[in-house]
Specification:
By secondary structure, the protein is mainly alpha-helical. The chain contains 17 helices and no strands.
Length: 389
C-alpha cells in the first residue's frame, strides 16, 4: 500500500464501509416502495415519481459533482457530499411526508452515487494493489445491496422500520465522516493538456452506442431493483418478504459473480466477456419474467450473468478513448445514460396503470435484449484498437 500500515487500514475500512452503506441506502428505496404507496396512498404514477426524482439526483450529482471533484481538495469534497447525503437520511428519520421524501431522494441517491464513484477514483491513488481492492469494494457493495433487500424485506411493513433503517445507516455515515478526517487523500492535479469538449466526445460513433448500451442496462438492472418487490407482492401474489428474497437472490448472484468470474476476464477479454455474459443474461432474464411466478428463481440466477457487465462496461468506455480524455468521456456517457433511468421511471408507473404489471414488466427484458444486440453491433461496426478484445 502507498501509505503506512495504520493509515492504509483506516482508508480500507473507510472505503469498504462507505461502499456498503451507500449500497444499502439505495436498496431501501425499492424495498420500501410498497410501504410508501400504502402509507401515502400513492398511485403507481406517484410512486414512480419517487424513483424518477432519485435518478434526477443521480444525474445532478454526477455532472456537477464530477466537475467539482477535479477542482477541490478531495477530503473537503467527499466530506461535503457525506454531509449532504447524511442530511437527507436525517430527514427520512425525522419526517413522514411524501414531498419531503421526494426532495430528499435527490440528495440521498445523488450523494450515494457520487460517493461510490469517488471511492473508485481514489482507490488507485491510495493503494498499491488497486485492481484487487476495486473488486473487493464492488463485492462489499453487492453485500450491502443483497443484505438490505433480504433483511429489509422482512421488516418493510411500516414507516417506523424505514426510520430505523435510515438511522442505522446515518450512524455508520457519521463513523465514515470521522474516519475521513484521519485520512490523507491526494488532491487532484491541475490538467496540463487541452480539455476535450463534451460535444467532440458525443460526436464519436462509439459514444452513441455506449450511451444506448449503458442506458438500456440501467433500465434492466435498476428497473428490477426498484420494481420487483412491488411486482411480486402486487401482481404475482407473493408477500413483500418473498418478493424481496428473489430480488436479493438476483443481486446476490451479482455479488458472488464479481468474485467468481474475475479470473475469466483476463483470459477471455473485456469485449468477449461482455458479448457472452450479456447474451446469457438477456436469455435468463427474459425467460424469468416471461414465466411469471414460476420464473422467479431463473430471474434470480440471471444475476450471475449480470455480475460483471457494468464494471466491464465502464472499463470498455475508457478503452475506446485516449487516456487524456477517458475519464471525461466515461463521466459524460454515464451521466447521459442516467436519463434512461429518469425517462423509464417517468412512464413506467402510468404504463402499469394502463396495461398492468404483467405487460409493463416486458419493458425490462426488452431493454436487456437491446444491450446484447447493441454490444454485438458495436463490436462489428465501430473500429476499435487491437487491445480491445
Amino acid at each position: 500500500m502507498k501509505n503506512n500500515n495504520h493509515s492504509s487500514l483506516r482508508a480500507l475500512i473507510f472505503c469498504a464501509v462507505l461502499m456498503t452503506i451507500t449500497a444499502a441506502s439505495d436498496s431501501l428505496r425499492g424495498v420500501f416502495l410498497p410501504q410508501f404507496k400504502s402509507s401515502f396512498s400513492l398511485s403507481e404514477t406517484s410512486a414512480s415519481h419517487i424513483i424518477m426524482i432519485s435518478y434526477i439526483g443521480n444525474l445532478l450529482f454526477l455532472s456537477v459533482g464530477g466537475f467539482l471533484s477535479d477542482r477541490m481538495p478531495r477530503k473537503r469534497f467527499i466530506g461535503g457530499v457525506i454531509c449532504l447525503w447524511s442530511a437527507a437520511l436525517l430527514m427520512y428519520v425525522l419526517t413522514e411526508n411524501y414531498y419531503i421524501l421526494l426532495v430528499c431522494m435527490i440528495f440521498s441517491m445523488g450523494g450515494s452515487t457520487m460517493l461510490s464513484t469517488s471511492v473508485n477514483v481514489i482507490t488507485p491513488l491510495m493503494f498499491a494493489s488497486p485492481a484487487a481492492l476495486v473488486s473487493i469494494f464492488n463485492f462489499v457493495q453487492g453485500v450491502g445491496i443483497t443484505a438490505t433487500q433480504n433483511v429489509g424485506g422482512r421488516f418493510a411493513d411500516s414507516l417506523r422500520s424505514w426510520h430505523i433503517a435510515n438511522l442505522i445507516i446515518l450512524a455508520l455515515a457519521a463513523i465514515c465522516l470521522a474516519l475521513l478526517f484521519t485520512l490523507k487523500l491526494p488532491d487532484p492535479e491541475p490538467t496540463k493538456s487541452e480539455r476535450i469538449s463534451p460535444l467532440s466526445i458525443i460526436k464519436r460513433p462509439q459514444s452513441i452506442f455506449l450511451i444506448l448500451i449503458c442506458g438500456c442496462y440501467f433500465v434492466a438492472e435498476h428497473g428490477l431493483m426498484n420494481w420487483l418487490t412491488s411486482y411480486g407482492s402486487e401482481h404475482l401474489g407473493f408477500t413483500v418478504s418473498k418478493s424481496a428474497f428473489y430480488l436479493s437472490l438476483f443481486f446476490g448472484g451479482i455479488t458472488v459473480g464479481r468474485l467468481v468470474f474475475a479470473p475469466v476476464i483476463d483470459k477471455v477479454g473485456i469485449f468477449k466477456c461482455l458479448l457472452i455474459y450479456s447474451a446469457v443474461g438477456a436469455l435468463l432474464y427474459t425467460v424469468g419474467i416471461a414465466l411469471g411466478r414460476g420464473g422467479m428463481l431463473i430471474l434470480g440466477i440471471s444475476g450471475l450473468a449480470f455480475s460483471i457487465i457494468y464494471p466491464l462496461l465502464v472499463m470498455l468506455i475508457g478503452k475506446f478513448f485516449d487516456p487524456s480524455c477517458a475519464g471525461s468521456a466515461t463521466g459524460l456517457i454515464l451521466s447521459i445514460a442516467t436519463l434512461f433511468d429518469i425517462g423509464f421511471n417517468a412512464f413506467f408507473g402510468p404504463l402499469i396503470e394502463k396495461v398492468g404489471y404483467g405487460k409493463a414488466m416486458a419493458v425490462m427484458p426488452a431493454a436487456m435484449i437491446l444491450v446484447a444486440v447493441l454490444l454485438f453491433s458495436l463490436k462489428f461496426t465501430v473500429k476499435q484498437s487491437k487491445e480491445i478484445r
